[in-house]
Design brief:
By secondary structure, the protein is an alpha/beta fold. It has a single domain, classed as Rossmann fold (3-Layer(aba) Sandwich), CATH 3.40.50.150. Helix content is 34%, strand content 20%. It has a 7-stranded mixed beta sheet, sandwiched between helices. Mean pLDDT is 84; it is low at 229-233.
């Protein structure tokens, strides 16, 4: 999905700061996800699947003018059969979409059982979120509808997606220059230790769960009773057994 203003913002110190942290975290997670088919939806100029080792990787975008090879489609109508994709990455797609819940429903449809979805986004409960409330009319990223992690977890639960690995990052204030980002860098360690849920960005992972049939175990007690009934009688027990009355 194309996001107007994203590439221009990535050229700023803020954008490079966020992108550097997100790529490092996403690389750690996708390197341990295995299967055959992986898909990245949106922001194809930046490869979020580079650390994954699946044999088939595909990018999807609704921008027909994209220079990178991609499948042109709408994120709410992915052209894949049901239960056919092992991993889907959504980098900042949901918070700039008209119907983010519809996108998640479509993701759940195409994921295989135990398939993974990875979402990156901006945290509204952070210094970055406070800045957004003051600058909502400015271009990306402040003009998006930022989704909180608790809200995303609720959506995951409704779609039978179990929330798994998740992390917050970018604790520095959203200053504009490299000089001030360097001065505030001490807040990275402090934030991870003292206020870990207040990072400016996050990565959240979900796994599709399919409820199977309940396993019905054999009636072990009945089998043991039958085994005792069919067991041989020891000579001592047979000797002590009372004689049966003779038929007349």
């Amino acid at each position: 999905m194309s996001i107007p203003g994203f590439h221009e913002w990535l050229d700023t110190p803020q954008g490079q700061y966020v992108q550097g942290w997100e790529h490092a975290r996403v690389d750690e997670i996708v390197s341990d996800v295995f299967g055959y088919n992986a898909v990245q939806v949106g922001l194809l100029e930046h490869d979020y699947l580079r650390a994954n080792r699946m044999p088939f990787k595909l990018g999807c975008d609704d921008d027909r003018s994209a220079t990178s090879p991609a499948l042109v489609c709408d994120a709410v109508q992915l052209p894949f059969p049901a239960a056919s994709v092992d991993l889907i990455v959504l980098p900042h797609v949901l918070e700039f979409a008209d119907d983010p819940h519809a996108i998640l429903r479509e993701v759940e449809r195409v994921l295989v059982p135990e398939g993974h979805v990875l979402v990156t986004g901006f945290n509204p409960f952070s210094l970055w979120g406070a800045r957004r409330r003051l600058r909502e009319r400015e271009p990306f990223p402040w003009n998006g509808d930022w989704l909180s992690v608790p809200r995303l977890r609720d959506w995951f639960k409704l779609l039978s997606l179990d929330s798994q690995a998740g992390c917050f990052g970018c604790y520095c204030p959203p200053v504009r220059s490299d000089k001030w980002l360097a001065r505030w860098h001490f807040m990275e360690n402090a934030g991870r230790r003292w206020w870990p849920f207040l990072g400016g960005t996050y990565v959240l992972q979900g796994i599709k769960r399919v409820r199977g049939m309940r396993l019905i175990t054999p009636a072990w007690n009945d089998r043991k009773a039958a085994a005792r009934a069919l067991g041989t009688v020891s000579p001592r027990a047979q000797k002590n057994r009372a004689p049966e009355p003779a038929d007349h």
